[in-house]
Amino acid sequence: MKNSKEYAQKVQKLYRSLKRSRGKVEKVMYEDPVDALIYAVVSERLSEAESQAALKRFRDYFVDWNELRVSRVEEIAEILGVEESVARETAATLTRALMAVFKKYNVLSLESLKKMGKRPARQVLEKIEQLSPYAIDYCMLTALKGHAIPLTERMIEYLKTNDLVHADADRQQIEGFLARLIPAAKAYEFYALLRYESEHRKTTGKAKVRKAKKKT
Hints:
12 helices, 68% helix
């Protein structure tokens, strides 16, 4: 990524600031990667608060994840409780991904991935229909002890509008830059802090000025 040294200093400064303001982050770990997969698909388009609320409704409504897998998209979308187009897209992605897991293993579980190396496990996830880079990275980070920084579109937008990464950088470049900058032991903490910040803070004044200039 262009000017990576300059942006590295900015990101590290932000990271230190977020740790001071937010305090300790409780790391999330999943015993079965399929649980991480479900949360990842839901949380990619929903905020953290919306995702947690939706998962609670899932657990209250469905007997198990198999029932979720075979449910109608419309039914799942209604339970998600967010804007209709987002809910339907999320529900459709979720059912296709769970169907792909069940078809491959004849059981709705990905525990076998924990017996593989990280690279083979990632390759399996990459072949699951509809799983996005964010969902794959989230599964690797929270269920398979991988070194990854999952990025939602909102997080990427936050990084760009606050001049923390190059404006022309694509997702892959940003993910690679952050993975090199943030050590594996701190990856979840950084992800959680950045995600919270991206969902609760507005862009900086500097970013707003730059965006305004572009419009003139």
